[in-house]
Amino acid sequence: MSYLSRESSPLGEALWNQIDETVINTARKALVGRRFLKIFGPLGIGTQSIHIDDYENLDENYDNGFITTKGRKYVEIPTIYDDFTLFSKDLENCKQFGYPIDLSRAAYSAEECSRKEDRLIFFGNQSYGYEGLLTASGINKIERKDWATGENAFSDIVSALELFTQKGIYGSYALIMSPDLYTQLQRIQQGTGLLEIERIRNLVGGNLYNTSVLGTGKAALICPEQRNMDLVIGQDLATGYLEQKDFNHSFRVLETVLLRIKRKQAITVFE
Q1: Is the pLDDT of residue 57 over 90?
Q2: Whose CB has fewer CB within 10 Å in the chain, the N or C terminal residue?
């Protein structure tokens, strides 16, 4: 039996294909972190941990015939999941009358898993020792001015780019912000004839994203080259069968995923 336990369900292949299509298409629209982070994997559900190297301190220690790696740690790849149920009477009704099956519950679970993945990417999980882009120790921080006024946003981002240059961090850049800051930039900048958001978009090579996961008043500029960070995927987003209970069918949408930050100086947070 496979890990997802689909063989134990009475559902046909056609329904499983519909569930897979719904979950994957929903996640593609909802996920934000995967739009700018490089993917390492999928490695398979059996991969339970991965090493994270600290680029600034990585080295080998030699001590009387004993070698260890400085700046490297092994971290468990956590599982993210959300469950949903399909009612047997609904499935029978669709079969009897030829109605399409409503898979809204599967879509909701895919959206919830997407939000959980992005929260892990941006904020980590302090309780279990996982760091996020906005919460990792040792990242750059710049005091954010009022982005609704003048050229404050533009000058803040220029300052962050200059900081990267000083630290020798080059490559593509991505700016991620909360929706309120994104909305504040939807205005014509006096003397330019351009929306402030367009000036900034050009500044970061078009790689500009906003997500409600950040809440309000938060933004970060990163250099997401794979040498600096990546997203490790063990089991990519998939749906498994849990059980039949009270004649209804229970499912789990799940994935194993971990943000791996290798160079913390490639992250600048505006706060």
Answers
A1: no
A2: N
> Nearest 5°: phi and psi at 157?
-70, -35
Give the CB-side neighbour count of residue 173, counting CA atoms within 13 A. Answer: 24
C-alpha 261/C-alpha 86 separation (Å) is: 39
What distance in Å separates the CA atoms of residue 125 and residue 131, rounded to the nearest whole number? 6
Same domain, 128 and 204: no
Which residue range is the domain that position 259 belongs to?
6-133+227-270
Q: Are residues 18 and 113 in the same domain?
A: yes
How confident is the model over 23-55, as pLDDT tens digits? Answer: 999 999 999 999 999 999 999 999 999 999 887
Q: Is the separation of the CB atoms in 213 and 30 below 8 Å?
A: no
Q: 6, 240 in Cβ contact below 8 A?
A: yes
Token output for 29:
């629209």
* CATH number (domain holding residue 99): 3.30.2400.30
Give the range among 22-36, 85-99, 166-180 with minimum mean pLDDT: 85-99
Residue 264 is given by DSSP the state G
Does residue 1 register a pLDDT over 70? no
Quick check: is 52 in a domain?
A: yes
Rounded-to-integer distance, Cα 124 and Cα 267, Å: 14
Residue 37 pLDDT: 98
